[in-house]
Amino acid sequence: MKERMSTPRICRLKTGSIIASTAASFLRVVKGFFAVLRECRKLSDLISTPSLQSLLIEKTSPSTSLTTEEELMVKFIFDENCIQGESVIAMRLHFTNSVEIATRQHMCCLKPYAWILTIVINMVVIQLTNKQRTKYPDGKHRIWYMPLYVSQMIIKNEVYEENNKRVADLYFKKQGYTGPIDALDEIYIPFNYNNHHWMCLKIDMVRHVAYLFDSKPSRTFGKDRKKKGELLVKNMHEVLKHAYGSNYVQDVSLYKVHWLTEQPLQLDNYNCGLFVIKYMQSAPLSPGFQMFDPIERCRLLVDLLKDVDNRRFLEFKNQFDMYNMR
């Protein structure tokens, strides 16, 4: 009789022990979860503190401050009471008749938190190309910068088969943005991913490799973004064949596309265009999360306005002087 009574008692003890053990394990998991959550909140609070933001800004904003006149120029451009459709920049590409025109409305994309437009990146491309052509008067510049028209046409090449030849005819050689191919070291190709993110591909002709710059990597879109980079490399091979014929001896379609392993990363959702511009300019940005001081956008605006190849600057300056006399 005692033995029959002890069996259920033992089962109840074992069941109670299992439940207690499971409950204890569950509590440990819950405590661990909330501990991680607290640390994440601490990190989020730390990132949002002015002291850390100031540290990051000091680290990533080497541009000089604006003069009083330059600050007034920025105010004049951003004034919503002025004519928004008035052209303020007409950037000329050296050795060509090509001119990129931007209105006041276009340049307002350089206000804080705004999405940087195609036209601004294209103007920076012209600036950088002109600097190369000034540095190498014989036309044999070593770095090529492609306007966004090129990547847009190449990415659409699967639909329009003649695009590669058109790209070669419109944007290559001296009448476009490039020079003799035997002098070439690097090609920068900025591009837009799915109309919501700016990226840049660099083809290194010396190391025979291509690097993909992405200031906001994504697990969800990472594979597709890399495919876009590989598509650009593959079609650039066809473009170079059309443009240079037998002088094109390297096969860039064989180049592997790699993500940049050490690169600056953005914390916000609107500065990818500025990151791409800084990358093309070879700005000294450290790896890891970065924050730009708003002055960087103003500095870029003033540099474009005062560029020696801005054919509209004298007229702009006269209007600016009248604006300040009111």
Brief sketch in words of this structure:
With 326 residues, this protein is an alpha/beta fold. The chain has helices at residues 2-48, 50-60, 68-78, 104-107, 118-135, 148-155, 163-171, 222-244, 272-280, 295-305, 313-325, and strands at residues 87-92, 99-103, 143-145, 186-193, 197-204, 209-213, 257-259, 264-266, 288-290.
Plain-language structure description:
50% of the residues lie in helices and 13% in strands. The protein is an alpha/beta fold. Helix 5 (118-135) runs parallel beside helix 9 (272-280), helix 6 (148-155) packs antiparallel against helix 7 (163-171) and helix 7 (163-171) packs across helix 8. The protein is flat. Mean pLDDT is 85; it is low at 39-59.
What is the helical fraction, as a range of percent?
Answer: 40-55%
Low-confidence stretches: 39-59
Largest sheet: 5 strands, mixed
Number of helical segments with 4 or more residues: 11
**Overall pLDDT level:** 85
Structural shape:
flat
Order of adjacent strands in the largest pleated sheet: 3-4-5-6-7
